[in-house]
Design a protein that fits this description.
Largest sheet: 6 strands, mixed
Radius of gyration: 50 Å
Helix content: under 10%
Shape: extended
Number of helices: 13
Distance between the termini: 43 Å
Length: 1620
C-alpha cells in the first residue's frame, strides 16, 4: 500500500521511471534506495554505507550491488518470486510469501514502513526449507496493520528489496475516538486544542522516508482512463489518491512532450482483452509525424517480434490510423506488461494478467480400451491449476461414487476419472470440462467370448486399462515448474471458475459450459450454487447445462460444443447425434466406429546369444503407425536392429542377440501399447542355456556330457484360433512349430486326446492338426496343444440351426434388431444378396460394352431390364451366367444402347447406367497425310484441311506454336459439317512453325499436328568481321553464318573487294557454304581495303555484309594473354600453361615470352632466350623454397605485346600431402529437399592443411557416390539441394589440397530427407471459425492451416462418419480445404478434421449449419386470459421442423406510442403473454420467425383494445393575485482583482440578477470585448464569465461589466495586473 504525498513525490521525475526495455538499455538494472535492515522483531537498524552499484533486475525489485566485480560462482540477491499486494477483510490472516536466490544464500528480513513489528503474536516470520519459501504472517488483521511491508534479502555482495502493500477492509462504520485524556484537556482549557492541533500536524519521522512506486504501475496509469484509476489504486495498494494524481499529471505532461516528437495524435486507447476466439487484443488510434517511424512491441521490457499477418504469435494489423495488436495461442507465460513504442518513446502500456488467459489442456484425455470388468482410467493435465472441473459420461454429469472415482493432484494440474468394473453398457464418450475448454475421448469395452462363462457373471478383474503413468506426471511437473518460474500466484487458481461464472452471468452462449436456463454448478444431482440466469423462457429447472463437451479431443466447449442436456426438444448429445439417432444406435447395438486396437500383442522371447530374435504384434488397421521402445528408450533401425511393417503387422528383429539385447520392449500406437521381455541366454560348456540348466538342477540332473548337442528351444510360429462350427459339420484346429522334429499332445478341457472315431490327430512337417469330422454339443470346449514346454489354446463353439435355418448367433442378432423367430411351418433359406453390384459403364460408339454383377449363390437366376423393359438375348445383345456371375454384353454399342439397366434376382436388385459416347475420330490415312511437313515460298498461300467424324456439335481450334489462330487479314478458318480448313495468305517466314488442329465435342477431344515451312532468301552473314591476319602480303578474316537461312541451306558465299578511294568492286571468288573465312594475297603494303560477303541459297542471294577498312601491313601488337596457370610445382621445376590472347593484332602469333620474378624483387627476367612456340613451359631455373611469380607476352609480326597480369606466387617445393579426414561431421538442418552439413578441419598431424572440401551423396538405391560441388568449397558448411522427399541418403565429405584428396569421412548412419519432426498442430487465427452459418445453395468452404512433419494423413469426418461424396477435400502443403459447392440443409453437422503422423495427432472441429431465410409464421390470434394481459398465439412457421434453432420474436405497438418495440425474443413455443395492457389503448402485435440467417416477414395480429369508461369531474380554479417580478439589474457576486503571471490563463466571473434578463457587455479601457476573438465571453443563468487564454502585458488594465435591461443599468469593475 503506497503512501504518496505532494511533499514526498515532488522530487520525482520521469527519469526515475526508465522504460522497461532491456533491448534498449545495455544494463537493464535500476538503482535502489539505501534501506535499513529489520531484525527479527521488525526494528530497523542502520546499514553501513558502501559504494553501491544500483541496478533494477525486474519490475518492483530494487537491487543494490556492493562490489564492482563478483567472484566466480557468487551472485547478489534477487527475488525468484516477489511478495504481492494483498486486500484482505478485517479479522483474517494475511500472508506475504517470497522466494529469493543468490550465492551465498541471502538472509531474509521483513519491515513495516510505518510502525514496528515487535508483537510476536501478531507478526510471524516463517521459512519453509522444502519449498525454499519465506513468509510473513499478520494474524487477526485490524485497520492498524494496513501498511507497506518490505522484504530485504542480503548477502555479502548486495541487497534486494521488494515492497508489497496490505489493504484491510474494515467491517461496519467505526469512529476513531480521541484519547480520553485529550478530550478532558480540551474541555478544561481551549488553548490546549491548539497544542493538540500542533501535535497532530507534526509529521512522523518515518513518514519522511521517500517511497518509489513500481514503474509498472505508473506505466499502467499513464495509459488508462480516469475511470479506471480507482480500480488500479486498489489493485496495487495506493492509498494517497490525491498525491498520485498530482504526480501523474506531471508525468503525463513530460510523456506528451516526448510523444510530440514522433506523433500528431493519440486516442481511443483500449486495454488488452481476450476475445471469444482466445486471442488477446489491444487497440489505439495513432497518427505518426513520419510514416517511416519504427514501431516496437515490448513484454516486461523485452522486445518481441511481430508481423502484419496472423502468422506469428504476435501480430499488428493497421487500418488507417487504427493499430490493433494481437497475441494468439495464449499460454501462462504470455502474462505481463505490454508496451508499444514509436522509436524510443513509450506510447501505450497495458497489463495482461494470468486471470485473463483461458485454461487449456496440455495433455488431453485419450481413448481407453478395456476388457470387461477391468477398471478404466482417464487422465489429463491442465495449463492452470483448477479445482472446478466437470466430468461428463454418456451425456450426464459424473460425481464420485462407488462406480466413479474422481481425483486430482495436489497442484490441481492432473485430473483423473477412474471408471470401476467396466461393463459393455459403460461404452461411450467421456469428457472433462474446465473453464471454456473441454476434452473428450471414447471408452471401448471388449467382452470375452469364453463359452464357459456364457450366461454367468464374469469374475472381477484387478487390472486397470488406460493412463499414461510416469509420462503424465512428468508433463505436469514441467508445467508446475513453468508456472512457478512465471510467478503464478496460488490465488489465481480460481480463474476457471470465475470465468465460467462471468460467462454464465452474461448469458453468453460461447462463454462457457454452464449457460442460461438457471444453470448451476452442482451438475450431479441438480443442486448447487446458481451461477447464471437467462432471459430464455424455455426452462427453469436447476442443473440445466448447455453447450458442453463434444467429440474430437480438445476444443472450445462454449463456441463449438453440442448440447449435453436440455429440458426441451430432441437436442444432440456430445457425439453430435440427436436423440432419435441415439435410439437407433442403441437398437442396432452400435455406438460408432471403434478405435485402433491390438488384435495380437507381443509375447516374451527367449533367445540364445548370437542367434536372431523377433518381436511381432498386429493392429486392427494397416494404416496405423507406431513406435518401439526398449527400457523406456525410443528405438530406430540401425546395425543389427530392424524395424519393419507388413500391412497391420509390426515387427522388430534383432539380427544377433547379446546380453545388451535383454530388456523390456514396448510398442505404442495411438494411445495403445503392448509389452514383452527379451531374455538372451548363454550356452555353457555343456551346450545348455541357463534356463535349461536351471530345469536340470530342479530335477536333480547334472549337466549333460560334453559330446551332447542341444538344439535351440521349440516355440510356436502360429498358434491356435477359436473355431465356430455348425452342428453336424466338420471343425479343424491347426498350429505350427518352428521345428518339424517336435512332437506334442492335444488336450480338451484338461483331458488328453487321441485319434478315435470322429477325431483325427495328424502332423505334416511342423504343422499339427486336430480334425472333428462331425461336430456336436460334446465337441464344444477348450482345446490345448503342448510341445516341449510350449502351449497354445483355443475354443471350439458348436452352434445349432433352428427351424428357420439360422444359428444361435444369428438369432441373437435378430432379437437385438427387434425381429422374432419365423413360424415353425416356414422354411427360409439364407437370403440371396449381391456380393458385387453393377457399375456405370462408359462405352464408345461401335465398341463393346459389358455389365457384370455377382450373387452369393450360383443357384439363383435373375432378369435383366433396360429402362423398365425386360431384356432377352438377341442380335448384338448377349445374356450369360457363369456360376454366381451374371453378365450382359452389348456387342456394338450405339446411341440406342444408352439407358438405365437393372438386374433383379429373388427380390434383390442392382442398377447402373450405360453411357454411349461418340468422340471425334480422325482416320489413320488423314492423320498420316496431315502430319507430312508443308513447304511454301514466301508470298504464296498455304492451305491445310482436316476431315473428321463424330457426334456434333464440334468446336475446332487451330494453333501455331501453341498460340491459337483466329480469323485475321492473313488467316481464314473455315468450318464444314465434317471437316475444317485453315487458309494462310501471303505467307512470311514468321508464319512457319508447328500447326496443330484440335477438334472437341461433348464426348472427347482429338488432335493432329504438322509443320509449315515458308521458304525465302537468307539473311546477310553476321558481323562484325574478325581480322585473322593483316600483314603486308596477306589479309585474312572470318565471319558468322546468316541468322536465318531462309529455310534452305547456304550453298556458297560470294566475296568482293574494293580499295579505299576507288568506286569499283572486284570479285575475289566464292567459298563453300560450310566455310566462314577467306584469305587473299592480292594486297599492297599500307593500302586500305573493304570487303563484301553475300550468302547464296537455292532461293536466292542475301543482302551483302560489308566490312570496315582493313589496312595491309600496319603495326598492330597482340593483346596480353591470360595470367599463366601452374600445372605442377616441385623443388626443381615449375610447369606453366596459358591461353592465347583474344586479339592477335591482325597477324599470326609467332611465339611467347615468359618472365619470372622472385618475391621481394622488382626485376623481371626471361626464362628462355628464344620465343616459346607452345602455350606450356617448364621453368627449371628456380631456387628451392623460394616464391616466384610469372607473366607472359605474345609476339606477332609487329613485335611483342603487353605482358599479362602476373600469376599468383608459387612455392618451389615438392607436392603437398593430401589432408586427413575431416572431424565432427554432423547435420545442422534438414527439409524435404535440402540437407545442411557442418564439420571441423582435419587434424594437421594426418596430412597437410586442406584448401577445400567436396561433398558426396549416395541414395539408398544407388551404388555410386555423386559429387555435389564441382569445385572445392572453402567453408566448413554446405547445403545439399534437390533431394527427394523422404528419401534415404548416405553422406560423406572429402578434404582436398594441392596434394590431392584425403580420405572421405562418412556420416555414421543414413539420413532421411525430411524436416525435424513436428507434432501435428493447427494454425488457427481469427479467420478460422469453429461455427459457420451458410445459406442453403451457397458454397461451403472451410480452410484449415496446420504444421506437421512428416506430412500427415488428413481425415475429415461429419458427425463421426466420413464426409459424403458431395464434399470435395483438397490437401496441400500445410493446408486442408473442405468444399461443398452447393450446400443443402442435410450438410448441417459437426465436421472434424484429424491430422496424424508418426509423432501424434490433432483434431479440430467446425460446426456448419446450412439454413435459409425463415418463412413467416401463420396468422396470429389474441385473447385475454388474465385481466391486464393479452396472450398472442400463432401458427408455427413451416421451417420449424427443418431448423432446430428457429425461434420467434414478438413486437408490440400501441395507439399512444406509434413506434414498434420488441416485446419478447428467443421464443421457442407458439405463445406469448404480454402484460401491463392498459384500458383505452389499442395494441398491435407482429410475430417474426428468426434463425441464424435473420428475420422472416412479420405475421400481423388484429388490433386489441379494452374500452375505458370516462368519468366526468369538475375543477374549481382559484384566483391568484398577479405579482410584478420585474427588477433592475444588480450584481450578486462582484468581480475580483486578478494578478496573473505572464502566459497563464485568466478567468473572471461575476453573478448578476434582473428581470427581464439583462444584456451584459464587457469593456477593457472602455473598449467592448464581446466581439473580440481573444476573449471568451459567456453568460449562463446569470453567471457572467470571461476567459483569457494566455495573458500578456497588453491585457493589463481595468475591466468593466455592464448589465442593462428596460428597468435600469448596473456596473461592476476590476483590475488585471500581469506579472512578468
Amino acid at each position: 500500500m503506497y503512501q504518496i504525498t505532494p511533499e514526498n513525490c515532488s522530487h520525482l521525475r520521469a527519469s526515475q521511471f526508465p522504460k522497461m526495455k532491456t533491448s534498449k538499455i545495455t544494463n537493464g538494472t535500476a538503482s535502489g534506495q539505501g534501506p535499513t535492515h529489520s531484525n527479527s522483531t521488525g526494528q530497523g537498524s542502520p546499514v553501513k554505507k558502501r559504494d553501491a552499484i544500483k541496478r533494477r533486475s525486474k519490475t518492483g525489485v530494487i537491487i543494490t550491488q556492493f562490489t564492482e566485480e563478483l567472484p566466480d560462482g557468487c551472485s547478489f540477491p534477487d527475488f525468484e518470486r516477489k511478495p504481492i499486494a494483498l486486500t484482505i477483510q478485517e479479522g483474517k490472516t494475511a500472508t506475504f510469501k517470497a522466494i529469493v536466490k543468490g550465492n551465498p544464500k541471502p538472509e531474509v528480513t521483513w519491515k513495516r514502513v510505518k510502525g514496528t513489528m515487535d508483537d510476536p503474536n501478531k507478526f510471524k516470520m516463517i521459512y519453509d526449507k522444502f519449498t525454499d519459501e519465506h513468509a510473513l504472517q499478520v494474524i487477526k488483521l485490524t485497520g492498524q496493520e494496513a501498511d507497506n511491508y518490505k522484504c530485504y534479502a542480503t548477502n555479502d555482495y548486495g541487497e534486494a528489496v521488494c515492497t508489497a502493500g496490505l489493504i484491510v477492509i474494515e467491517i461496519g462504520f467505526k469512529k476513531k475516538s480521541m484519547p480520553q485524556e485529550e478530550n478532558e484537556a480540551t474541555r478544561k482549557d481551549p488553548t490546549e486544542f491548539r497544542k493538540l492541533l500542533r501535535k497532530r500536524v507534526s509529521k512522523d519521522p518515518e513518514a519522511k522516508e521517500e517511497k518509489v512506486m513500481d514503474e509498472k504501475v505508473w506505466e499502467i496509469l499513464l495509459s488508462s482512463d480516469k475511470k479506471d484509476y480507482e480500480r488500479i489504486c486498489i489493485e496495487y495498494g495506493i492509498t494517497d489518491f490525491r498525491g498520485m494524481l498530482k504526480r501523474l499529471n506531471e508525468m503525463k505532461m513530460e510523456r506528451e512532450e516526448e510523444q510530440a516528437k514522433f506523433i500528431d495524435a493519440l486516442s481511443n486507447l483500449k486495454p488488452i482483452a481476450v476475445n471469444k476466439e482466445g486471442i488477446a487484443e489491444f487497440e489505439l488510434d495513432l497518427e505518426l509525424k513520419d510514416s517511416n517511424s519504427r514501431i516496437f512491441l515490448y513484454k516486461d521490457g523485452v522486445m518481441i517480434p511481430f508481423n502484419k499477418e496472423m502468422v506469428m504469435k504476435h501480430s499488428l494489423k493497421q487500418t488507417g490510423k487504427k493499430y490493433t495488436f494481437s497475441i494468439k495461442d495464449l499460454l501462462p507465460e504470455d502474462a505481463g506488461l505490454y508496451q508499444v513504442d514509436v522509436e524510443d518513446t513509450t506510447i501505450f502500456s497495458t497489463d495482461l494478467t494470468f486471470k485473463a488467459i483461458p485454461i487449456n489442456f496440455i495433455c488431453p484425455i485419450k481413448e481407453v480400451k478395456a476388457q470387461e470388468r477391468e477398471d478404466a482410467l482417464f487422465e489429463c493435465v491442465l495449463s492452470h491449476p483448477s479445482a472446478s472441473v466437470v466430468w461428463m459420461g454418456k451425456n450426464k454429469p459424473i460425481q464420485s461414487s462407488e462406480k466413479y472415482e474422481i481425483t486430482m493432484s495436489e497442484d490441481k494440474l492432473i485430473h483423473r476419472l477412474l471408471v470401476k468394473d467396466v461393463m459393455p453398457v459403460d461404452k461411450g464418450i467421456y469428457a472433462i470440462v474446465a473453464g471454456i475448454r473441454s476434452s473428450s475421448a471414447w471408452l471401448m469395452v471388449e467382452s470375452t467370448d469364453d463359452p464357459s462363462t456364457r450366461g454367468k457373471k464374469k469374475a472381477r478383474k484387478t487390472t486397470r486399462a488406460g493412463g499414461s503413468g510416469d509420462l503424465i506426471e512428468s508433463i505436469a511437473q514441467e508445467q508446475a515448474e513453468k508456472l512457478k518460474h512465471l510467478g503464478f500466484k496460488p490465488e489465481d487458481e480460481g480463474v476457471a471458475e470465475d470465468r465460467a461464472e462471468a460467462g454464465a452471468r452474461a448469458g453468453d452462449v460461447t462463454g462457457g459450459v454452464i449457460n442460461g436456463m438457471g444453470g448451476q454448478r452442482g451438475l450431479g444431482d441438480g443442486q448447487g450454487e446458481p451461477v447464471g440466469k437467462s432471459d430464455d423462457h424455455s426452462g427453469s429447472g436447476p442443473g440445466k447445462v448447455e453447450n458442453g463437451p463434444r467429440q474430437g479431443g480438445t476444443g472450445d466447449a462454449g463456441a463449438s460444443g453440442q448440447r449435453i442436456d436440455s429440458g426441451l426438444g430432441s437436442g444432440q448429445d456430445i457425439r453430435g447425434l440427436t436423440d432419435d439417432q441415439n435410439r437407433k444406435n442403441k437398437s442396432a447395438g452400435g455406438l460408432g466406429e471403434p478405435a485402433v486396437h491390438f488384435t495380437s500383442g507381443l509375447s516374451d522371447v527367449h533367445a540364445q546369444k548370437g542367434h536372431a530374435a523377433e518381436l511381432v504384434c498386429k493392429l486392427n488397421s494397416d494404416q496405423s503407425k507406431g513406435v518401439w521402445f526398449k527400457d523406456g528408450q525410443k528405438l530406430s533401425s540401425r546395425d543389427g536392429l530392424t524395424i519393419s511393417k507388413e500391412g497391420a503387422c509390426h515387427k522388430l528383429t534383432i539380427a544377433k542377440a547379446d546380453k545388451s539385447s535383454s530388456g523390456k520392449y514396448r510398442f505404442e500406437a495411438e494411445g495403445h501399447k503392448t509389452e514383452a521381455h527379451v531374455i538372451v541366454e548363454e550356452q555353457d560348456s555343456s551346450g545348455l542355456t541357463d534356463d535349461q540348466n536351471r530345469k536340470n538342477r530342479r530335477a536333480g540332473r547334472g549337466p549333460l556330457t560334453e559330446d551332447t548337442i542341444v538344439e535351440p528351444a521349440v516355440h510356436f510360429t502360429s498358434g491356435l484360433s477359436d473355431v465356430h462350427a455348425q452342428k453336424g459339420h466338420a471343425a479343424e484346429l491347426v498350429c505350427k512349430l518352428n521345428s518339424d522334429q517336435s512332437e506334442g499332445v492335444w488336450f480338451k478341457d484338461g483331458q488328453t486326446l487321441s485319434s478315435r472315431d470322429g477325431l483325427t490327430i495328424s502332423k505334416e512337417g511342423a504343422c499339427h492338426d486336430l480334425t472333428i469330422s462331425k461336430a456336436d454339443e460334446s465337441s464344444s470346449g477348450k482345446y490345448r496343444f503342448e510341445a516341449e514346454g510350449c502351449k497354445t489354446e483355443a475354443h471350439v463353439i458348436v452352434e445349432e440351426q433352428d427351424s428357420s435355418g439360422l444359428t444361435d448367433d444369428q438369432n441373437r442378432k435378430n432379437r437385438r434388431a427387434g425381429r422374432g423367430p419365423l413360424t415353425e411351418d416356414t422354411i427360409v433359406e439364407p437370403a440371396v444378396h449381391f456380393t458385387s453390384g453393377l457399375s456405370d459403364v462408359h462405352a464408345q460408339k461401335g465398341h463393346a460394352a459389358e455389365l457384370v454383377c455377382k450373387l452369393n449363390s450360383d443357384q439363383s437366376e435373375g432378369v435383366w431390364f433396360k429402362d423398365g423393359e425386360k431384356l432377352s438375348s438377341r442380335d448384338g445383345l448377349t445374356i450369360s451366367k457363369e456360376g454366381a456371375c451374371h453378365k450382359l454384353t452389348i456387342a456394338k454399342a450405339d446411341e440406342s444402347s444408352s439407358g438405365k439397366y437393372r438386374f433383379e434376382a429373388e427380390g434383390r436388385k442392382t442398377e447402373a447406367h450405360v453411357i454411349v459416347e461418340d468422340p471425334p475420330v480422325l482416320s489413320k490415312e488423314d492423320i498420316e497425310y496431315f502430319s507430312k511437313p508443308i513447304a511454301v515460298k514466301a508470298g504464296q498461300n498455304a492451305e491445310l484441311k482436316m476431315p473428321f467424324e463424330g457426334r456434333p456439335p464440334f468446336k475446332v481450334s487451330w494453333f501455331r506454336d501453341g498460340e491459337e489462330l483466329l480469323d485475321d487479314k492473313n488467316v481464314k478458318v473455315e468450318m464444314g459439317p465434317n471437316h475444317s480448313r485453315l487458309l494462310l495468305t501471303k505467307c512470311k517466314r514468321k508464319n512457319g512453325g508447328e500447326i496443330k488442329v484440335k477438334i472437341k465435342n461433348d464426348n472427347g477431344t482429338v488432335e493432329a499436328m504438322t509443320n509449315l515451312v515458308v521458304l525465302d532468301k537468307p539473311s546477310p552473314p553476321q558481323g562484325p568481321v574478325e581480322v585473322l591476319e593483316s600483314s603486308p602480303t596477306c589479309i585474312e578474316f572470318k565471319w558468322r553464318p546468316p541468322r536465318d537461312d531462309g529455310g534452305a541451306p547456304v550453298l556458297k558465299y560470294s566475296l568482293e573487294r574494293q580499295q579505299v578511294g576507288r568506286n569499283t568492286w572486284t570479285k575475289l571468288g566464292e567459298v563453300p557454304g560450310n566455310t566462314h573465312s577467306f584469305a587473299t594475297n592480292q594486297v599492297e603494303h599500307g593500302r586500305k581495303y573493304c570487303f563484301r560477303i553475300q550468302a547464296l541459297t537455292a532461293e536466292g542471294a542475301s543482302e551483302v555484309l560489308e566490312t570496315d577498312e582493313i589496312t595491309a601491313g600496319m603495326k598492330a601488337y597482340p593483346s596480353p594473354p591470360a595470367p599463366p596457370k601452374v600445372v605442377s610445382a616441385t623443388s626443381k621445376c615449375i610447369t606453366l600453361s596459358w591461353s592465347a590472347p583474344h586479339n592477335t593484332g591482325g597477324s599470326r602469333i609467332a611465339g611467347y615470352i615468359v618472365e619470372k620474378r622472385k618475391k621481394g624483387s622488382n626485376i623481371w627476367s626471361r626464362v628462355s632466350d628464344e620465343p616459346i612456340q607452345e602455350r606450356k613451359f617448364a621453368v627449371k631455373d628456380i631456387v628451392e623454397g623460394q616464391q616466384f611469380e610469372f607473366r607472359v607476352s605474345a609476339i606477332n609480326v609487329s613485335g611483342a605485346g603487353e605482358p599479362s597480369v602476373p600469376s599468383d606466387f608459387i612455392f618451389a617445393r615438392d607436392p603437398m600431402k593430401p589432408p586427413g579426414k575431416i572431424q565432427n561431421l554432423k547435420v545442422t538442418d534438414s527439409s524435404y529437399t535440402t540437407l545442411s552439413l557442418s564439420w571441423a578441419k582435419p587434424n594437421e598431424d594426418e596430412g597437410d592443411a586442406a584448401k577445400g572440401y567436396y561433398v558426396e551423396i549416395k541414395s539408398a538405391d544407388s551404388l555410386h557416390w555423386r559429387r555435389c560441388n564441382a569445385a572445392p568449397i572453402g567453408l566448413n558448411s554446405y547445403t545439399i539441394k534437390g533431394l527427394k522427399s523422404m528419401g534415404m541418403y548416405f553422406i560423406r565429405v572429402v578434404a582436398a589440397n594441392d596434394g590431392g584428396e584425403g580420405e572421405p569421412q562418412e556420416l555414421q548412419s543414413h539420413i532421411l530427407a525430411m524436416p525435424p519432426p513436428v507434432r501435428p498442430r493447427f494454425l488457427t487465427d481469427a479467420s478460422v471459425k469453429s461455427f459457420m452459418v451458410v445459406k442453403a445453395g451457397n458454397t461451403v468452404r472451410a480452410n484449415i492451416n496446420f504444421e506437421s512433419s512428416p506430412i500427415p494423413d488428413v481425415t475429415w469426418l461429419k458427425d463421426g462418419i466420413p464426409v459424403s461424396k458431395r464434399a470435395t477435400i483438397t490437401n496441400a502443403d500445410g493446408m486442408s480445404q473442405l468444399l461443398i459447392p452447393s450446400s443443402e440443409r442435410t450438410d448441417t453437422g459437426l465436421y472434424t478434421v484429424t491430422i496424424k503422423n508418426l509423432f501424434g495427432q490433432e483434431s479440430f472441429s467446425i460446426e456448419i449449419r446450412v439454413t435459409d431465410e425463415p418463412k413467416p409464421p401463420g396468422p396470429a390470434q389474441l385473447e385475454e386470459n388474465v385481466p391486464g394481459t393479452v396472450t398472442v398465439s400463432w401458427v408455427p412457421s413451416p421451417d420449424e421442423k427443418l431448423d432446430s434453432r428457429l425461434h420467434y420474436m414478438v413486437m408490440k405497438r400501441d395507439s399512444i406510442k406509434m413506434s414498434w418495440h420488441t416485446a419478447a425474443d428467443h421464443i421457442f413455443n407458439n405463445k406469448f403473454t404480454a402484460v401491463n395492457i392498459m384500458s383505452g389503448r389499442r395494441y398491435f402485435f407482429r410475430v417474426y420467425a428468426k434463425n441464424d440467417m435473420g428475420l422472416s416477414a412479420p405475421s400481423e395480429s388484429p388490433a386489441w383494445e379494452i374500452c375505458k369508461k370516462k368519468e366526468t369531474f369538475s375543477v374549481r380554479m382559484p384566483t391568484y393575485k398577479q405579482n410584478d417580478l420585474r427588477q433592475a439589474p444588480a450584481f450578486i457576486v462582484p468581480l475580483k482583482t486578478h494578478f496573473v503571471p505572464h502566459g497563464y490563463e485568466c478567468y473572471m466571473s461575476c453573478a448578476v440578477k434582473g428581470s427581464p434578463k439583462p444584456y451584459v457587455t464587457w469593456y477593457r479601457n472602455n473598449i467592448s470585448l464581446n466581439q473580440n476573438a481573444n476573449y471568451l465571453v459567456s453568460n449562463v443563468h446569470g453567471v457572467c464569465s470571461m476567459h483569457i487564454m494566455g495573458v500578456s502585458a497588453e491585457d493589463n488594465g481595468e475591466y468593466v461589466v455592464v448589465a442593462e435591461n428596460a428597468l435600469g443599468r448596473a456596473v461592476c469593475s476590476t483590475r488585471l495586473t500581469v506579472r512578468e
